[in-house]
Amino acid sequence: MNKRLITAYSVFSFLVFLFLIVWFVFRTINTRTDNLLSARKDLENISRTVTSSYLTAGSFTSPYFSETVLKSIGDDEHLKALVISTDQGRLEFAYAVESRYLPGTLDFKALLTFPVSFSFNPITEEAVFTSSVVPSGKDIRLDAVYGIFERSEVFPVVRELLIGLLSFLLVTAIAIIVQPHLYAKHGTAAAAPGRQRATKDRAAPEEDAFGGSDALEADADPSGGLYSPSSALGFEQHLEERLSAELKRAASFDQDLVLLLGCVNGLERADPFYAELSRMAREFFNFQDLCFEYGNSGIGIIIPNVDIDQGIQRVEEFKDRVDKRIGEETDSRKLFIGLSARNGRLISGNRIIREAESALRRAEHESAGIMAFRVDPEKYRDYIASRKSSMRR
Length: 393
Fold this sequence. Notes:
Blueprint: H1 3-57, H2 63-73, E1 79-86, E2 91-96, E3 125-133, E4 139-147, H3 151-201, H4 239-252, E5 257-264, H5 272-284, E6 291-294, E7 298-304, H6 308-327, E8 335-341, H7 349-363, E9 370-373, H8 377-392
Parallel strand pairs: 8-9
Antiparallel strand pairs: 1-2, 1-4, 3-4, 5-7, 5-8, 6-7
Helix pairs in contact: 1-2, 1-3
């Protein structure tokens, strides 16, 4: 995968995760804030009920007062504890869904200190209070604990977060599966117009890192053209030069490149099937400017933007088509293919051609008919470094 693509994906992933984290924090804070406002309004309603019940019963100890207050708070699942006291701190009424919420020293005979020291979880619960004045002139205070981020409210937030995360992972998985196929089929076609314009404009040759030239000279062939009139493939003498230019381009964008050399046993260039083989190669690999004649009756194809494994997959499909076409005419012929790849190396066109030729010779003795030259890039770099050091000596 291109380093620029990896960098872009890393930045995109970071932004997605940052968005999900910020969104989760925002949803949590927003839910707590809304529930806290609702708790304060609810406590105000309870305060009015307490005042009216006290005026009706005339005492906090009246059964009517207790029944009325408990009835008003019985259906409130967010209320965890409630303490009613006078402004001097005298405890008049206490309620809790669990005893752990109430202070351990709670005593109706002792005076309370404010604020009441409830025991609660500060993340999911909050203590609130309000005060009221009854017409008789007595001030009362209501202290309560409310759940402001209940378990039933946590699950929807976590569920939405997981949906966002799974959606991102699904898109990533699809991109990983689809990207190599799109890269192999369409990435090379997108680069072809630029290469063809460079050929048509006949830009001046520019020396590259491999000692080759960045542009092809149109007058290299005596006929003044780049393509053979009989096969419509590029002339073989252009193969190495064009390959060096493509290797330079691939190294600039940290991309791979595969060279295919193929031949059909017993086939001559004058044979009509050679023109058929050339046509199938041009149509299968989508563009003409990277297809060349090779040897007496072979073809050379430059396949950019794919590694050796992707190249083998494409070449196997191409070979199946050619062998099927050959089988319609004769059973004595067979297509043999040798492959080599840049594989992260700074390598010349001549070197990769020799590697592909070596693979082609071995392919002629294999039943599959395809052989790929594989190289360890680390060992290759060590070999180049050792050669440079020996030359300095």
